[in-house]
## 1
Amino acid sequence: MSGILLLEQSLNGLQFGLMLFLLAAGLTLVFGIMDMINLAHGSLYMIGAFLAAKFVELTGSFWLAVLLAMAGTAIVGMALEMSVLRRLYARDHLAQVLATFAIILIANELVRIVWGPQVPLGTPAALSGPVRLLPGLEYSSYRLVIIAVGLAVAVALYLAVTRTKTGMLVRAGASNREMAVAMGVDIRRLFTLVFGVGAALCAIAGAMLGPILAVQVGMGEDILILAFVVIVIGGIGSIRGALVGALLVGVVDTMGRAFLPGLLREFLSPPVASALGGALASILIYLLMAAILAWKPQGLFPARG
Amino acid sequence: MTRRSAATVAILAAAIAFPLAAQPLGWEFYIGLASRVMIYALAATSLNLVLGYGGMLSFGHAAFVGAGAYTAGILLTEGIASVWIGWPIAVAAATVAAIVIGAISLRTRGVYFIMITLAFAQMMYYVAIGMKAYGGEEGLRLASRPQAGLGLDLKDDVTFYYLVLAILAAALYGLHRLARARFGRVIAAIRENETRMEAIGFPTYRYKLVCFVIGGAVAGLAGALLAANNSYVNPNLFYWTQSGTLMIMVILGGVGRLWGGVLGAAALLLAEELFSAYTIHWQLGVGAILLAVVLFAPKGLAGLAARHG
């Protein structure tokens, strides 16, 4: 394999990993602070993508649409939290699974009714062409922008969590909720806020990935599981863990898909290699998760010490 | 006869009488539907043993249903049509899968157990997609139903119905006995307080693994039945939403209750059938009902019945 190809696939992996991070960040806080399994997180991602597509139609501007989609999805997320999810914190994981699975069904159907099963969302015209990064390496400018946006959001989130008072309260809640409540933190309000921010991050991921993947009903189900893998690898409740886990999963998954079939072709017949390579590449991240859990049962960066 | 066993006899009698009544009324369609409900009831019951009785939150039970279905389907495609060979091998395949997955997963706890079992099922989903010789992503169409011999024609929907009914009844009776046996009591005690059971000297890991494997084996049988019923298997049998659906059936019906799996499977599938007759947006209705159950009937349908009955 050539160095150029390797570099290109690394960038793809970085791009995918950063978008996974946006999904995992909200999920890990919800999970970490409230010990709540929220399967409906993928639905917020879907709603964000659909909103973005519709706002592009309405306003004609991709970036304005992303901002509006963020606001819209945050409102949906906070409304969901205040109306339904809040009642589930005290319940066991089974009740949470059942309720949030029900929300997936409801969200899928509502989106289908309002907007149909699939809507088009194109790359913004200014970013449709490739740019030359190195001699011989033409790379999609849109993917570069995704990387930039992902990095910017990651830095902003890091600063917000480590340097602001609200961030401090969030960290306190994640590491020991009872103690934070005892110290006078209004965990209910804080949590609605966290949920809104998590939803807005979902919307960014949905809107940015929309032109690359497809904006369709059910898009959240596939990526939700990846996000769960990310937060388990990183350590539940840890933002830093979510970032590391997301980048690991993004790079391993992308590299596996790109190079495993070719690598296997060295030893096996081409049809066997491509079939086996494809399956193996998809399995790779789960093996990664199993290996990391065997090594560190609490994930890489456990939030509760 | 107690009221409870009278109710059981009444349900069994109704289930036996159903095809006899359905045929003259022209309800043949509902015989197929009832078979499907009972197969899912069997799968959900097997999960209920693991989840409700054993307290292990497995989010990958579809792995065993899928393993059974695919093994049965592949054997049928390769020309082994007898259920007496095909189904035991399907159950054996699911059992092996459950031993491997259980032995590894049961070393973890809590949320990590949920995620590891989910991960294994997802791996098998991708393996099924990768099996190009057996349909890959498209799945595998089966030419016909398997053969049982003994004068039983499984292509006949009524015969198939009675076979499924007999298996489900046997499974429920087995679960009933198991829960009251020493094994069931140990499993329940481990669910309530594993540390204490360990301190008393019970090999808790081994008990949990056996419970997990029995659940997996029965799920494999349900998978083989499902393959025969649909004459079709596809990778979605392994997908996480399938595990989720089985879990939903158990929670909906009643976690750790004998009839929980049956009630949940029947309620969910019949609600789907009912809503889809009126609207293509049936998922909306099903979702709303599930949400209402979580918020207003925390113990599931079996819990509701127990409270009022």
Note: The interface with chain B takes residues 31, 37, 39, 84, 87-88, 91, 93-95, 97-99, 101-106, 108-110, 112-113, 221, 225, 228-229, 232, 236, 271, 275-276, 278-280, 282-283, 286-287, 289-290, 293, 297 of chain A (CB under 8 Å).
## 2
Amino acid sequence: MSVPANIDQPVLMPHGRRRTELVMLGFAVAVVLFAYGAVGLGLKGKLPPGLPVQVLVFAALMLAAHLAIRRFAPYADPLLLPLAGLLNGLGLVMIYRLVQSGRNGNPGFHVTDLSTSATTTQLLYTTVGILAMVAVLVLISEPRVLQRYTYTLGALGLVLLAIPALLPASHSVVNGAKVWIILGGGFSIEPGEFARLALAVFFAGYLVAKRDALALAGRRVLGIDLPRARDLGPVLAAWAASLLILIFETDIGASALFFGMFIAMLYVATQRTSWLLLGVLLFLAGSWLTALLFGHVMERFTIWLHPFQGSNPTNSSFQLVQGLEGMAFGGLFGTGLGQGQPYHTPLVQSDFIFSAFGEELGLVGVMALLLVFGLLVQRGLRAALAVTDPFSKLLVGGLSFVLALQVFVIVGGVTGLIPLTGVTTPFLSQGGSSLVASWILVGLLIRVSNSARKPAPQPIQDEGMTQVVRAA
Amino acid sequence: MNRALLRLSLACLAMFVLLLLNINYVQAFKATKLAAEPGNIRVFDQQFSYQRGAIMAAGDGTDLKIAESRLIKGTTTYQRYYPQGKVYAPVTGYDTIYSQSGIEQAENSLLAGTSPQLAVHNLTALLTGKQKQGATVELTVSPAAQKAAYDALTADGGHAAAVVAIQPSTGAILALASYPTFNPNDLTTFNGSTLNKVDHRLLTDSTQPLLNRAIQETYPPGSSFKIVTSSAAFSHGLVKNPNTLVNAPEPLRLPNGNDLINDGGEICGDGHPPIIQAFWMSCNTAFGELGMKLTAPTLRQYSSQYGMNRPLSIPLPVVPSVMPKGRYWLDPSLTAFSAMGQFNDAVTPLQEAMFSAAVANHGKLMYPYLVQQVVGPGLSQIQRANTRLLSQAASPTVAGYVQSMMYQVTNNPGGTAYATAGPQATGGITIDGKTGTAQNGLNNGNLNDAVFTCFVPGSNGQPSPIAVGVIVQGGGFGADAAAPIAVQVIKAYLGAHS
């Protein structure tokens, strides 16, 4: 069917809503500015001395990102950058607050493993993250470009995953998790964060190519289409890989994210519930098996089920109990930034940063934080729904889901909803790898949302008497 | 693939909904329980970061500060301080970094500012940026009476003793002192090991300074229990009025073959004195026989009407004064002893004051209380005492009979307390009272406890101002050891309220 264009009316150019993005970004920067000021006022009753410079740098970074999007992805979803920027900024503020604890005459104790320069370092990581996001936009002009590197990225992902397992403990273990590459000089990388992104691309490319084969019905048992035995190969491979991460890197969280992402993408690609069920069964079997075999997995369950029992609060569940008591201490409205005692909780700057927000911003504050995460995930899923290219759909659907799953695993863990596993809180936790990887993820979301929202090429207007036909 | 993506979106939504529900559960629903978890560092640290409410003794019209939190110079930490030292220790109790006792414990949530009654104040403080502050607790205690009570007990010469003074018309406690006692300032240290040392010293001290004898320890009431026995006898018509003659043999042969004798084998009048004389002379045989006629259950019923056989909360917990239903309690021979405050009868010094307070207030026993009002940080009243009837101990007529007998104890030259609480001893103040000299210990082998309960009767339509109960452990005769303490408390109180 064809529709003749009405040549009497000017054609409305669909706009990319970049101005909306700028306004929302200004709002995000303002929230960060006020939060930063509030930390100083809460701690000492005066504004932090570093406030103008650090907030200016942060604002400049956000503005640069905005300009890059204007140039390279003009139709991108206008909310993605402000949401990510707001989270990143609040993370910076909380890290600044934790660095100040017990230093410079402020109340509280030193937070262990948090150096005085952590705020500046985190701002540096933010810069690297924004650069990485811009690089994604520049280098990947179309999401489909990535599809060419399906197997390359798959191999890269596996190598990144495997490195910490192969390195000696002195070069790979931090706080009991063997997931690092320690480069010396206080610098280390968590390659798993990047491996997850590379593997997402690999899964998307692989599943788009094989989805017809995987969706082929095998036998039908009890109303469920069972897959053919030989199609099980990739699923079992992914399961085995996630188990290997769990066993050799003692990283339950990363393993759950990795496997969850794979199963979600498999389900989206094939639309077959049987894969989903199989995935869940495999996950439960794997968890049960490892819980039996490895003490530390079993201990996670004990801590989760009985945090306040016996001597647990002062031993194994000390961290969880401190986090929970901190959040309860914050109550509905929180103590106010700089006025709580988050420094009692071990690793509050990374795994437990959410509980620090709960303590100082209260229930209302963390509900808002969760809604910001939820909105970010929702914008990603929206782009996945809107984009037509199946590879992009799968990639962004998987990435959005894994973002939601990551938030669920860590926030659910620190609030006692599920057993605690050490994954970072996206954008908030201290540390470069997670932050840069999160920005790359947002870069991919922006790139795909740009493709989804880009208007179809306009027919050439007013070419004399030429009849214009537009394909609907 | 969109159908599967929509389902995936629903899964994401479900995860966020679960997280939101769970943080609501942790931070709103379960927050109070988590705050009360033992070893909650934040709650522990916080209690010294703002000013805990003060405790005032307001019984003399002006407020005397007896506990306050002071900012330690150069820090943001508050430390508890008791300006009156030992004098008010049985009332305020202590406030250590780990625990509290006394009013500090009973009113802890208001003093600490964590009570739901202070929620509005706390929210206002939060919104206006003011510092959170605890509420001030104003007590009914009269500084004059309390000081006199403490001084009298200390001067007594080392006997463990306690005294309680009550305003009979309201139940307001005017003085509550116990000896030996402790200095609560010794326990306010932030140093855990110092605190442990002090705590260990107090707990192992054989004189038990931490024991609040006024409300946590019971002693045989001795003859002061004859107030209850005579009330029962009047009420049951067993004895018509104070001039009715009663049988007072010497000795009284009991059904089990033993003899009950008067103190020192003294003959009570002519053996058939009016009950009023048996009362002022405190003849045991007369009341022993009345007790047997009344039977144990009736006596116990009247003891309950005088406030016994039940725990009280003033709001410090008070151990019940009892006439217990033991194994042999229905045995008439033992009831004869119960009727004169021996056998298993046991009362607190507070109960001694309550005997007199009930008589002084025309038989109406008011519930004793210590907290006059609680004032929030904004000087608004959060809580005030409402006086209430504990029980009708006796009819006004019977209370009048008992009062006339108690008058003779102190004002008749033959009365047991004429010398120590009579007009000469008090400097003209009329006191009505009853002495008790209670035997105790296994086979009554210990030194006698001295007991005295008394009140200043109302006059010119004014209600009785004060009733006092005193017990001096091992003090000997009630009239000698206990009555002078009561007289000093009464003099000091009336002096401050004249």
Note: Chain B has 20 helices and 17 strands.
